[in-house]
Design a protein that fits this description.
- It is built from ten helices and eight strands.
- By secondary structure, it is an alpha/beta fold.
- The protein has one domain (3-286): TIM Barrel (Alpha-Beta Barrel).
- An eight-stranded parallel β-barrel has the order 1-2-3-4-5-6-7-8, surrounded by four helices.
- Helix 1 (24-41) links the parallel strand 1 (13-18) and strand 2.
- The protein is globular and about 50 Å long.
- The two termini are 27 Å apart.
């Protein structure tokens, strides 16, 4: 199933994102988590990320293949420019196609260990170039990323929006946002994107907060902000994981309800390979 075809059917599209574990045992545990979520919540699709520098390339392909063949899920593989030539990327796409994977999220990616992005000789500099390359192969539905609060490397929100427009012009059929915690950031971005001519679905990406130190680290890396009142509550209870998780779940439920009431096309959950928070959030909003 092409993910772009899931939209516009009169109901929200719900999806889950996972990252590939480093060991076989962890991979089996993750598949059990996916099965748990799939059996209870029936996501419309699931995606698997790509390690920095392509470090989990093999596991990404293996996991999206198994999720599709063993669990019957529509899957999407993430693919990045980091550390790859065009020929290597072509080989990866051929492997995905041979396993029946129809959806790819085209990303520039971040280099291992942080630092500045370096173009691989014979590779691509931008996600838009990768999106064009994937589309030209004629087999895939291509998704892309966007940033309600702008990419941390962009000089301004206007510059960042121009890149989003360019990605769509290069063949991206839907956009998934970076995580955010203030829904107004999403609404403002969508309004500006529509005014700039973007018509594809813009799916809000939601990360349930389960750890204060973890979410502070993530937001620092991606340039997202935590609303001051929410941040203060989290810090007040940062030594009590159960309360932090309860606060995170409560906030995400309110956020998702607000987004869906305003006709967001769905919600993409950054699960961090855990089922409890995502299961609680989606069960609550599906009960409406």
């Amino acid at each position: 199933m092409r993910i772009a075809d899931l939209f516009g059917r009169g109901r929200p599209v719900f999806s889950f994102e996972f990252f590939p574990p480093k060991t076989d045992d962890a991979a089996q545990s993750m598949l059990a988590t996916v099965r748990d979520l799939a059996d209870m919540l029936a996501p419309d699709f699931v995606s698997v990320t790509y390690g920095a520098g392509g470090s989990t390339r093999g596991r990404t392909i293996e996991l999206v293949s198994r999720m599709q063949s063993e669990l019957g899920l529509t899957t999407m593989a993430h693919l990045t420019c980091v550390g790859h030539t065009r020929e290597e990327l072509a080989g990866i796409l051929d492997r995905l196609a041979s396993r029946g994977i129809k959806n790819v999220l085209a990303l520039r990616g971040d280099p291992p260990g942080g630092g500045a992005f370096q173009v691989t000789e014979g590779g691509f500099r931008h996600a838009s170039e990768l999106a064009t390359f994937v589309r030209e192969r004629g087999r895939f539905c291509v998704g892309g990323a966007c940033y309600p609060e702008k990419h941390p490397e962009s000089a301004s929100r206007d510059e960042d929006l121009r890149w989003a427009v360019h990605k769509v012009a290069c063949g991206v059929e839907f956009l998934i946002t970076q995580l955010f915690f203030d829904s107004e950031d999403y609404f403002h971005f969508v309004e500006r994107a529509r005014a700039a001519g973007i018509t594809v679905p813009i799916v809000p990406g939601i990360m349930p907060i389960t750890s204060v130190s973890q979410i502070e680290r993530f937001t620092k890396m991606c340039g997202a902000g935590i609303p001051p009142e929410l941040h203060a509550r989290l810090q007040r209870f940062q030594d009590d994981p159960s309360i932090v998780m309860a606060i995170g779940i409560e906030h995400a439920i309110r956020q998702c309800r607000r987004l869906l009431e305003a006709n967001a096309p769905g919600v993409h959950f950054y699960t961090l390979n855990r089922s409890h928070a995502t299961r609680s959030i989606l069960a609550a909003i599906k009960a409406l």
